[in-house]
Structures are given as C-alpha cells and as structure tokens.
Amino acid sequence: MRESIPVEEKLLITLRYLATGCSFVDMHYAFKIGKFTVSLIVQEVCKAIWTHAKHITFPSLTTEKWLQIAEGFKKNANFPHCIGAIDGKHIRMIKPANSGSMFYNYKNYFSMVLFAMCDSNYLFTYADVGSYGKSSDSGILKIPLYE
Length: 147
Hints:
The chain has helices at residues 7-20, 24-31, 35-57, 63-77, 137-140; strands at residues 85-92, 111-118, 124-132. The protein is of the alpha+beta class. The protein folds into 2 domains: 7-55; 63-140, no CATH class. A hairpin with a 5-residue loop joins strand 2 and strand 3 (124-132).
C-alpha cells in the first residue's frame, strides 16, 4: 500500500490552487498526483477549513451585533439605520444538466451568484455561494435579524 499524502502537502495543494487559479491538470503535473486526487484534496481541505473557521470568520449576528453595525454605518458613512452593504456577483457557467432555467439570469446567460454583505469596516458579516442565477440580491439575503 502506498503512503498517504501528508496533511501539509494537501494544504499546500489547496492553497496553491486557490491562489493561482491553476487547473487540476496543472496541479496534477506540479505535484505528480492524479487529477481526480487533486480535486478530492481541494474539496476535502476547503470543507475542513470552512468547518473549523466559519464561527471565527462569520460570528453569530445577535441583536447587539446588529446595533453595533448600524452605529458603525452612522458614524463612518453618515448612513443611519443601515445594517450592511450587500452585492451579488454573477459567475458565468455552463448550464447544469436538468436545471431548466434556474441558473439563467437577466443578463441572458447561465450563472450562479456569489453574494456577500459587509459592515462599515469592510468586514464580511454574511456570504452565500452558489445561489441560482435567476435570484436577486434580496431573494438571496434571508438571514434572521434576531437570534
């Protein structure tokens, strides 16, 4: 039986993939492992990072936190009663099989939406990746205002 790929190398592969945007084929040649193995490593490491860091990156939005965000917008931007700046970005993609028109957007191409909200200090407070292209920003933002 072969030795397994060390955790350090898995992290290195994932970080290089995310930082450079290289294809799995490029990573296959650079690290001398299979393309499918590279894709599994990237998925596994990204899932582990998200599982262990999501509570640090995106803390729970309590009533006190919402009030703090609103105060920041009032103080820094002279924009009272604002609890976040939002925007969505359509990421062009090939139509997924059996998806109908769910990913077809108003710009007349297939996409999924990368959506984010931040506070007055440009820190993310909410993010959503993978919503249907037909969805609007307000349709994606469905978070509770109170915990």
